[in-house]
Amino acid sequence: MIDAMFSIGHLIDIVRNGGSVQTGVDVYDRDGTLLLAGDVVVDQVKPLEIIKRNGLRSVPVAPGGGLFDQGGNRIQAAGEDGRTLPETEGVKGGAMETESHQAEADITRRLQEIQDIRNETALKYTQAKACLKNALNQVRETNGEFDAGEVADQVRKLVAFSLGADNPFSYMGRELFFYDDYLYSHAVNVCAMGTAVLHNFNRVFSKSIEKTLWAEPAGESAHTPPKFSYYYPDDMAEMSLGFFIFDMGKALVPESLLNKTSKLSRDDLAMIRRHSYEFGSQILDKNRMANSVLSSIVRYHHGPMYEGEANCYPRDKQVADIPAYVRICKLMDSYDAMISKRSYRDAQNQVTAVTELFRTYVKKDPMLQLILHAFVSSIGLHPPGSIVYLKNGQMAYVLESRGPIVLAFTDTDLAPLNAQPDPMDLGRMGPEYQVDGDRSVQTPKEVFDRLPQFIKTIAMPG
After folding, report:
1. Are 217 and 184 in contact (CB under 8 A)?
2. What are the angstrom distances between the C-alpha of 324 and each of 302, 331, 378?
3. Which superfamily does 115-216+224-379 belong to?
4. Tell me: the pLDDT tens digits for 186-234?
């Protein structure tokens, strides 16, 4: 029996003010994945935020659970008498909040969380880049050897943080004008975002296979724990390591060639291509890391995603024999390269990159479609940091892909705003405030001079 339903915003307020929540009943997402066990006492905001990000706006509380204040006393809040609270209701200071007030509070809360995530992510980002830089220097000095244990330990920390904070690296600012650290930042981005896509893909693909293998017996709950997983945790940990070191062979390619701004000659291109199937494979062998997962990622991350794809190498495997996790690595390699400053071109807008990759790979083989779906679901159609047009003519900076939540920085005539505007959750706004997908979006560099200082501070890494 469920006692009442409470808005997730109200529960977050209770925990944020030092209280705790125990639902007394398991909470699942729409796919039947367990998000919160009923016997868990929640005294941190993070589990509730994960529930919210999975689309649940209200949470059941059964008689065995309850809401408790900082002193552990049960809160007799409106809603515990058995009636279901509307999604926008909550109790604050003994009064019911209005829908607009609740929306404003939700945005303010979310913006503070984004800033907290960015601050912690920046530290993890710096640590991971330093680790890889040290490893690549070791490779150059020894012609192949590096401290594999140190790198593996760094990747474990990176992945644990990334998954625990729900893909926090998507909120990192982008370097728009320089590329000196590209090789190191690229590895961190591919590992962090690729791991998010990998886990999303595994969840969806495993569930689809499970439904095929097991027809649910009559009377069995739709929330029965999963019986099948395509990739297991140890496998995915190894894949994440591969996502971090996939480009390590570039340490044996002359830096002058990697940073060349003029057109590459045929010999230049041949040398750069050796970073994967030759130099990368040699490094794995030299460090006794040449297992099937790492070897596949390092050797084939420039392989074909579908039959007939051009400019892929090496060509010694059929597409069907290239594992899904390798294709995920290639997709994230391409995406991050597109949205980063390179020696030979400027960074693209993230919306443009997502759209271009989607159009390139849509309607190809079925496995690739699942990968593409996991990519778009993880990154978002309007990733943080994107520049978009709204249908009313304004330009806006995307702070949060869910919604999305944006900051407009021009008026409807594209003139810069004189004052900092309030963030807008477009999911709560009228049609004139939706993203205009028909208008071409400028590159970050083209629009940078028009950004107000408060957005430039967000857009550029600290």
Report:
1. no
2. 13, 11, 16
3. Hypothetical protein af1432 (1.10.3210.10)
4. 999 999 999 999 999 998 898 888 877 776 554 455 555 567 789 999 9
